[in-house]
Amino acid sequence: MIKTEQITYGDVNSDLQFQGSISFDDESASPRPGILVCHAYGGHSEFDIQKSEKLAELGYFAFAMDLYGAGRRGNNPEESMALMNEFNSDRVLLQERMIHAFNMLKQFERVDENKTGAIGFCFGGKCALDLARAGEDVKGVVSFHGLYDAPTANPGKTLKSTTKISSSILILHGYEDPMATPKNMIDLAEELKSKNANWQIHAYSNVGHAFTNPDANDRSSGLFYDQAADEHSWQEMKYFFEKLF
């Protein structure tokens, strides 16, 4: 039986409390691969829980993290953008929160700490990629319609980085995404190549941003659901993790 639990956790680098969720098959007590689920710009939501439960059905332990802090959620695009931009403007803070959540994932008793992955949607794709960029021992990272700009550190701060990304990377991309242009996609490929990563990019024609979100319906802005890309990208993720673990 698939079980989902809401969890509250802290962070030694912050006074904030965070509210995420975990999903797993409670009929199996043996350790299994753990997947970190990174939310979109609005914060941890029912969407992340649904994806976590689908991962649990596949035999994984899923931890849907909270990057922003308890009660900090975007109720509209403007609020969501403001929350996201706090971290777009401070990639060191984003990295610290990601590493903390990843370390938490590995500590759950139902997780095999040697078999870990991360997936992310939209802004969450950037978060998952930043975990790999930091050189953490996450075996595989999957970005669904993510954002690709490489991180830089603000003055006086130090960004953890690596010359070789050990994680396998799967990019699932809508070719008409206005938030991640073909040039952005190529720039990411060159970045991953320069760091000797094992990477692949799957681009879908006539598909924009947010293609996994059934509530996305703003074609004029390039944000719209695409059922075929949604289903195909999930199958690609399944195959990716099956081969990895």
Strand order within the widest beta sheet: 1-2-4-3-5-6-7-8
Average pLDDT level: 96
- Poorly predicted runs are none
What is the CA–CA distance across the termini? 22 Å
The name of the CATH topology is Rossmann fold
Q: CATH H-level name... which superfamily?
A: Alpha/Beta hydrolase fold, catalytic domain
Query: What characteristic shape results from the CA principal axes?
Result: globular
Reading off the top of the CATH hierarchy, the class is best stated as Alpha Beta
Beta-strand share of residues: 25-35%
- Summed up, the domain count is 1
Radius of gyration, CA atoms, in whole angstroms: 17 Å
Q: Count helical runs.
A: 6
Strand segment count: 10
Could you give the order of the helices and strands? EEEHEHHEHEEHEEEH
Class by alpha and beta content: alpha/beta
The share of residues in helices is: 25-40%
Q: How does CATH name the architecture?
A: 3-Layer(aba) Sandwich
Organism: marine metagenome
Pfam family, one: DLH
GO molecular function, one term: hydrolase activity
Domain Dienelactone hydrolase: 28-243
